[in-house]
Write a structure and sequence with these properties.
Length: 1185
C-alpha cells in the first residue's frame, strides 16, 4: 500500500505545472550564477568554497518550493472535498503521512537540484577566464549538495509540512515559509552573520552562536572558512566536523523530532470548526417584524462611507492574518535589534552612539524596503483575490457598490501596509530616544521617511494591483509580481540601468546631522513623480479591466479596454500621461544631456581608449609642484566652488622634459603651462598634452596655472560640496600630472577581451625599494579661502588674516615651511573651541549639537602631543585643527598637514561616558594626531613597504598612548580588532599576501598585522628601544623635501637595537608570512604553606609559514612569548593590581610546561593575552581556573 501511495504521490506532483517551472527557474539561476565569474581575486570560480557560498545562499529559496509542494500534498484533499473519502478508506495514518511527506521532500529536492547542474554549465560553458577555473572535480559540487542542499530542504520540508499537516490551512503554510525565510535574516542581523556583513567580521563568540543557530548552515560554513586563504579555498574541501557537523546534526535531529511529534499529533480525520452555541429564544419572546422596504442611497456620501468601511474590513482581514503578524513581528524584532545593538550594546569596539534622529533613521531604513516588498508581494495578491478565494466574489459583484469604491479600497489598503511598517519603526525609534533620556527628537526628519522610503513602496503597490488585475489567478499574480521585483533589483545586469528603465528605481536619500538630507533629493523628487504617474496609468488600466464577479479571460479584458473611457477617465489618463512624459523628458535631459550618463560599457571603453592613447607618457619624466598658491571660493548654498591655482613645477629628474601630460579629475575652465604649446586637448578623456618650447632642464622650474569652476549640473551629486559641511580635498579637483594609471581596466578577462596587454607587475625587490627614485615633493603652500558669512573656512597653514566682504568671510592661510600637498578646504557652520598646550593651539571645529565628546578629543590630543614630542621629536606646526565633516564620508578620519577631518558619526556621536567601555573617541583622535608624525613629519618613499610607516606606526603610537591612559584593557581591544582585520582581510585579499616590509595597498596588513608586529617588537626589545629607533629615523629625514626613507632602513635600525640571537625573529616577523596557534592546554594552581600559590600550565605553540604559492607549512618555534597570570580577565586589566605575573617565557617546542609562584589566588592564566602574535583565535589563549 505504501509503495503505491508513494508512486501516486510522485505521479501527482510530477503533473503539477509548478514542478517544471521551478526546475527550469533554478537551472537558469544556477547557470546565471555560475557564469558571472564572481569570486575573490585569486580564488577559482569553480572552487568548492564558491560552490558552497552560492549554493548555501540560494537554498534560502527552497522554502518556497517546499511551501508549494506541501500545500498540494496536504491541502488538496480539503480543497477538493476528498477528506472524508480518504479518511474512511483502508489507507492507514502511517502510509498516508509518510507518503505525502516523502513526495513533498523528493520533489523539493528534485526541483532545486538543477541549480547545481546549471552552476556547472555556467562555470564551464559561458566563456569564463580559464585561468580562474581549476580542474573539474565533481566532489566540489557534490559535497555542497550533500551537506547543504539535502539537509536544508529536509529541514524546511519537515517544518512546513508539519504546519500544513496540523493546520490544513494554506495561509498558515505560507506563513511558516515566510517565517523560516525571514527568521534567517533576523538571526543573521542579530548575530552579525558574515553573509550579511562581510565587512564587519563577527566576534568568535557570536560566530559560534550563529554557526549553531543558523538552520541553513551558512553561518557554520563561514565559521569554518572565515579565515581560509585563497590557496585553501582553491584546494581544500569542507571538513564535516566541528560546529558545521554539530549544526547539521542539531537541525536534522530537531526536524525529525518535529516530524515525529507532528505524526503523533496528526488526527486522521477532518478538522471541524467549533460553532458557538446560539442562545435559544422562546416563542413568546419572538416578535414578528413587518417587512419594510429600505430606500437605497447611492450618492457620493454613501459611496465614501462604503469606501471607508471596505478599507476597514480589508485592513481588519489583513491584521488578523498569520503571515502579516509574522512579517510585522519580524520587522519589529529587526528594528529593535538594530537599535539596541548599535545604540545600547555598541557596534565598533562595543561603543554605543548617541541616539540622534538621523542615526536611527539610517539604521531602520536599510531593511525597510525588503520587508515592504515582501508584504506587497504576498498581500498584493491576497487583497485583490480575497473574494475569489472564499467564493464570495459573485455576491460582492451583485452589490450596488460602485467599481471605483471596491477598487480604491483595495489599492488604499495595500498602500497602507508599508506605511504601517514605517510608522511602527519610527515609533520604536522615538521610544528608544525617550527611554534613553534623549529629547532632541526631529519629528520633521521622521516624517520625511514616509516620503523618501514610502513613495517607492506605493509605486510598487500600484504595480502589484495592475499585475494581479491581468493575472489569471492569485498565485500567477503573486509569482509574476515577485519575479518582476527581483528583475528590477538586478536591472543593471539586464542592461536596464538607466533611471527611466529600472522599474521603480528611486535613489537612496541619506540623512546626516550636519546636512540633513545629504544627497539625491532632486533626482528622487523627479523620479518619484515619474514612477508615481506611471503607476497611476497602470492603476487606471487595472480599473478598466477589474475582475468584478466572475474571473474573465484575457480577451475579455482587451475588449474592455477597446470600449474606451468616459470623460473623467480620459482627463485622468491624459493628466498622468502628460506628467509621465514631462518628468521622463526632464529626467532624460538632466541625466543624458546636462549630466554625463555613462553605462558600464561606456566606462570600460573610456578606460581602454585612454590607455591606448596615453600609456606612452607613463615612462616620461615629469616635473613636480614645489609651490602651490590657491584662491578658493566656496558657495555652500549654491553647491559650487571655484579654484584659481598657481603652481610652480620643478624638474627634479636628471633628464630634460619635452612633453607633459595633464589629466583632469574634473573639467578645468582654463589651464596653462608657461613656455609650452598645447598640442592635444582631449575633452573626452580630459587629457592635455603640452610641449615645451625649450626642454625643461633638470632643476629648472616653470609656472603652471589652472582654473576650476565646479557647479553641480542636472542630478550630479558631489558630497564634497554641501550646504553645511563642505570638505574639498586635493583628490577632488587637482589635475593629475602625467599618466593616470588608475584609469586602467584591472580585470584580466576584460583586458584580454579588448586586446590589452597584461598590466605590469610592481617591482617589489629589495633593490627597487632601496634605489628606485620615485619623486614626491613637499611644497610651499598658501591659500585664500572664502565662504558664506555664516560659515568658517579652514585649510592647512598658519592663519595669517581673516576679513569679511560682500557677505562673505575670507581666510588667508600660509604654511611656515614645506608640507605635503595633501591639503583640503573645509566650510561649515562651525562652533569652535580652542586651547593652548605647550605653545600649540588645539582648535576644534564642530557642529554645535554634536558637542558630546569635545573635552575627550582635547584630552586625547594633548596626551598624543605629549607622548610624540617626548619620544619622536618636535611637532612641525603651531596648531592642530580638528574639523567635523558629515557622515556620508565613509572613513573615520584623515590627517592633512596640521588639519584633521573627523566624521560626525564615527567620532562625535560615539557615547564613551561609560568608563568600562573602550574609548573609541580617544583611539580615533590619537591615531589621526599621530599621523602628523607618521605621514607628514616622516614621509615614506612611495614604494613597497611605505604604508608601514604611515598606518603601522600610527597604530603603534595609538596603542602606547591608550595603554598609558587606560591600561592594558585597551591593548586587548586593539589586539582583537587587529587580529580580526588581519585574518579576515587576508582571506579576501586580492593578491598573494606579501611580507609586512613589502606591504602596499593591503589594509589588513597596514592596520592589522602591523599592530601585532610592532607590539611584538616592543615586547622583545622594549618600548624605549623602539621609540629610539623611530626617533633616529625621524630626525634623519625630518627636513627632507622628497621622501627617502624605506623599510630596509627601518630594519637596519631594528637589527642594531636587537640582540643578535633574536635577529631571526625580526626576519620572521617582517620578511616572512607566519601565523601562530597559541593556547593554554591545561592549567591548575595550588596554595602553598606560605600563603602563596603555585600555578602550572601546559602551553601549546605552533607556527605556520605561508609559502610563495600560498601553501601553509608548519615550522618550528624558538622565541620568547609573554605569559600572564591575573585575578581578573585580561580584557579588564586597568592597572598592575590585578596582574600577578606577566613576563616572557622562552618557547622552543609545541608543548611547554610552565610554573609560577604568585602572591594572590589566581583566576586566569594566558599566553600572549594582548595579541603580539598573529593567532586566529585569542579565546583559547586564556583559561579560567
Amino acid at each position: 500500500m505504501f509503495k503505491k501511495l508513494l508512486q501516486f504521490e510522485i505521479y501527482y506532483q510530477l503533473k503539477q505545472r509548478a514542478f517544471p517551472i521551478f526546475a527550469v527557474l533554478f537551472l537558469g539561476l544556477g547557470y546565471f550564477t555560475g557564469s558571472q565569474g564572481y569570486a575573490p581575486t585569486s580564488v577559482n570560480f569553480n572552487s568548492v568554497y564558491q560552490v558552497y557560498f552560492h549554493t548555501g545562499l540560494f537554498t534560502l529559496g527552497s522554502v518556497f518550493i517546499t511551501m508549494f509542494f506541501a500545500v498540494t500534498a496536504i491541502i488538496r484533499d480539503k480543497q477538493h472535498n476528498m477528506e472524508s473519502l480518504i479518511y474512511s478508506s483502508p489507507i492507514t495514518k502511517h502510509h498516508y503521512f509518510w507518503s505525502r511527506f516523502l513526495g513533498t521532500l523528493i520533489f523539493s529536492v528534485v526541483a532545486f537540484s538543477p541549480f547545481v547542474i546549471g552552476y556547472i554549465f555556467g562555470n564551464y560553458f559561458s566563456g569564463l577566464d580559464t585561468e580562474r577555473l581549476g580542474a573539474f572535480n565533481l566532489l566540489n559540487y557534490l559535497q555542497p549538495w550533500l551537506y547543504l542542499v539535502l539537509p536544508n530542504i529536509f529541514i524546511c520540508t519537515s517544518l512546513i509540512f508539519s504546519v500544513s499537516t496540523l493546520t490544513k490551512n494554506s495561509i498558515a503554510t505560507y506563513a511558516s515559509a515566510v517565517f523560516i525565510y525571514m527568521l534567517y535574516f533576523v538571526s543573521s542581523i542579530f548575530l552579525n552573520s558574515p553573509l550579511l556583513a562581510q565587512s564587519v567580521p563577527a566576534s568568535p563568540e557570536m560566530m559560534s552562536v550563529a554557526a549553531i543557530v543558523d538552520s541553513f548552515g551558512v553561518a557554520a560554513f563561514f565559521e569554518q572558512t572565515q579565515y581560509w586563504t585563497a590557496y585553501q579555498k582553491n584546494t581544500q574541501l569542507l571538513s564535516f566536523s566541528g560546529l558545521f557537523l554539530l549544526n547539521r546534526l542539531i537541525w536534522v535531529v530537531l526536524s525529525i523530532g518535529i516530524l515525529l511529534l507532528t505524526y503523533r499529533s496528526f488526527s486522521f480525520r477532518k478538522i471541524t470548526k467549533k460553532v458557538k452555541k446560539e442562545k435559544e429564544i422562546s416563542n413568546k419572546d419572538k416578535q414578528l417584524i413587518p417587512y419594510k422596504p429600505i430606500d437605497g442611497t447611492y450618492g457620493v456620501k454613501a459611496q465614501i462611507t462604503s469606501l471607508l468601511s471596505l478599507i476597514r474590513l480589508e485592513l481588519k482581514s489583513v491584521f488578523k492574518s498569520l503571515p502579516f503578524l509574522v512579517i510585522v513581528v519580524m520587522w519589529l524584532i529587526i528594528v529593535f535589534s538594530e537599535l539596541y545593538a548599535t545604540v545600547v550594546e555598541g557596534s565598533e569596539y562595543g561603543v554605543s552612539i548617541y541616539p540622534l534622529t538621523n542615526q536611527l533613521i539610517e539604521l531602520i531604513t536599510s531593511p525597510l524596503t525588503l520587508f515592504g516588498l515582501i508584504l506587497l508581494i504576498f498581500y498584493g495578491s491576497e487583497i485583490v483575490w480575497r473574494e475569489h478565494s472564499v467564493n464570495f466574489n459573485l455576491i460582492i459583484g451583485a452589490t450596488p457598490v460602485k467599481n471605483w469604491v471596491l477598487f480604491t479600497a483595495k489599492f488604499i489598503s495595500l498602500s497602507l501596509l508599508p506605511m504601517l511598517l514605517i510608522t511602527s519603526g519610527v515609533l520604536m525609534c522615538i521610544a528608544f530616544q525617550i527611554s534613553l533620556g534623549f529629547t532632541n527628537i526631529n519629528l520633521g526628519m521622521y516624517a520625511s521617511v514616509f516620503y523618501y522610503y514610502g513613495l517607492q513602496l506605493v509605486t510598487y503597490a500600484m504595480l502589484a494591483i495592475f499585475i494581479n488585475s491581468i493575472a489569471k489567478s492569485k498565485y500567477i499574480g503573486m509569482g509574476a509580481f515577485g519575479l518582476l521585483v527581483m528583475v528590477s533589483m538586478k536591472a543593471n545586469l539586464l542592461g536596464l540601468a538607466h533611471p527611466l528603465t529600472s522599474i521603480g528605481f528611486m535613489p537612496r536619500v541619506t540623512f546626516n546631522g550636519m546636512n540633513a538630507y545629504a544627497n539625491n533629493a532632486k533626482l528622487f523628487n523627479h523620479l518619484g513623480l515619474y514612477w508615481l504617474s506611471i503607476g497611476a496609468l497602470l492603476i487606471l488600466l487595472a480599473f478598466k479591466i477589474w475582475n468584478r464577479g466572475m474571473v474573465k479571460g484575457f480577451s475579455y479584458k482587451v475588449e474592455q479596454l477597446k470600449q474606451g473611457c468616459n470623460l473623467s477617465e480620459k482627463v485622468l489618463f491624459l493628466t498622468f500621461f502628460s506628467v509621465a512624459v514631462g518628468t521622463a523628458s526632464l529626467v532624460f535631459y538632466n541625466t543624458n544631456f546636462v549630466g554625463d550618463y555613462q553605462t558600464d560599457n561606456d566606462n570600460l571603453n573610456f578606460s581602454e581608449n585612454y590607455e591606448r592613447m596615453y600609456k606612452q607618457y607613463q615612462v616620461l619624466e615629469k616635473p613636480y609642484p614645489i609651490s602651490q598658491k590657491t584662491e578658493v571660493a566656496i558657495f555652500p548654498k549654491e553647491r559650487k566652488y571655484t579654484i584659481k591655482a598657481n603652481y610652480i613645477l620643478k624638474n627634479t629628474s636628471n633628464e630634460a622634459v619635452s612633453k607633459l601630460l595633464i589629466t583632469e579629475r574634473i573639467p578645468v575652465k582654463r589651464i596653462h603651462i608657461k613656455n609650452t604649446r598645447l598640442t592635444t586637448k582631449d575633452t573626452i578623456h580630459g587629457a592635455y598634452v603640452f610641449e615645451f618650447k625649450e626642454k625643461l632642464q633638470p632643476n629648472d622650474s616653470v609656472a603652471y596655472t589652472f582654473v576650476i569652476e565646479k557647479e553641480l549640473k542636472g542630478y550630479e551629486e558631489d558630497k564634497s560640496i554641501v550646504n553645511n559641511g563642505t570638505y574639498i580635498t586635493f583628490r577632488n579637483f587637482e589635475p593629475i600630472i602625467g599618466y593616470a594609471s588608475g584609469f586602467e581596466i584591472l580585470d584580466k578577462t576584460e583586458r584580454k577581451k579588448r586586446g590589452l596587454p597584461e598590466r605590469d607587475e610592481d617591482d617589489n625587490s629589495d633593490v627597487h625599494i632601496a634605489l628606485e627614485d620615485i619623486k614626491i615633493e613637499k611644497v610651499r603652500f598658501e591659500t585664500v579661502v572664502s565662504t558664506h558669512k555664516d560659515q568658517i573656512a579652514i585649510s592647512s597653514g598658519d592663519l595669517i588674516k581673516t576679513w569679511s566682504e560682500n557677505d562673505r568671510n575670507y581666510y588667508h592661510y600660509k604654511s611656515k615651511g614645506k608640507i605635503l600637498p595633501m591639503v583640503a578646504y573645509f566650510s561649515a557652520k562651525y562652533t569652535t573651541k580652542k586651547a593652548i598646550y605647550n605653545g600649540i593651539s588645539i582648535e576644534q571645529y564642530y557642529n554645535a549639537s554634536h558637542d558630546f565628546n569635545i573635552d575627550e578629543i582635547e584630552k586625547s590630543t594633548k596626551e598624543t602631543l605629549a607622548y610624540c614630542q617626548e619620544n619622536f621629536g618636535t611637532y612641525n606646526f603651531k596648531h592642530v585643527r580638528i574639523a567635523e565633516v558629515p557622515s556620508h564620508w565613509g572613513f573615520g578620519g584623515f590627517a592633512h598637514p596640521g588639519v584633521i577631518s573627523m566624521t560626525e558619526d564615527r567620532l562625535y556621536l560615539s557615547d564613551v561616558r561609560d568608563e568600562n567601555t573602550f574609548n573609541l573617541v580617544a583611539k580615533r583622535t590619537i591615531h589621526e594626531v599621530a599621523h602628523q608624525w607618521w605621514g607628514h613629519t616622516l614621509t615614506a618613499k612611495p614604494v613597497a613597504g611605505g604604508s608601514l610607516f604611515v598606518e603601522g606606526l600610527a597604530k603603534y603610537t595609538e596603542a602606547m598612548v591608550l595603554e598609558k591612559m587606560y591600561g592594558k584593557r585597551a591593548l586587548y581591544e586593539l589586539a582583537e580588532a587587529a587580529r580580526r582585520r588581519y585574518f579576515f582581510g587576508r582571506a579576501f585579499g586580492g593578491t598573494p599576501e606579501p611580507p609586512i616590509y613589502k606591504v602596499q595597498d593591503e589594509g589588513y596588513i597596514s592596520y592589522g598585522k602591523a599592530y601585532t608586529v610592532f607590539m611584538a617588537l616592543r615586547d622583545l626589545i622594549g618600548e624605549k628601544q623602539v621609540n629610539k629607533i623611530l626617533k633616529t629615523i625621524t630626525d634623519r629625514h625630518r627636513f627632507e623635501n622628497s621622501p627617502k626613507v624605506h623599510t630596509l632602513e627601518l630594519l637596519e635600525e631594528i637589527y642594531k637595537e636587537t640582540p643578535k640571537e633574536n635577529h631571526h625573529l625580526i626576519d620572521d616577523w617582517f620578511k616572512k608570512v607566519i601565523t601562530y596557534d597559541l593556547a593554554v592546554e591545561k592549567s591548575s594552581y595550588k596554595k602553598l604553606p606560605n600563603d602563596t600559590y603555585e600555578v602550572t600550565a601546559t602551553i601549546k605553540a605552533k607556527r605556520v609559514e605561508t609559502q610563495e604559492n600560498g601553501e601553509p607549512k608548519e615550522i618550528g618555534i624558538h622565541e620568547p612569548i609573554k605569559i600572564g597570570v591575573f585575578t581578573t580577565h585580561p580584557s579588564l586589566v586597568k592597572d598592575n593590581s590585578t596582574v600577578l605575573h606577566y613576563a616572557s617565557k622562552q618557547i622552543n617546542k609545541e608543548l611547554t610546561e610552565v610554573s609560577f609562584i604568585v602572591n594572590e589566588k589566581p583566576n586566569y592564566i594566558a599566553i600572549d593575552p594582548y595579541g603580539t602574535r598573529n593567532d586566529e583565535n585569542l579565546v583559547d589563549n586564556i583559561e579560567n581556573f
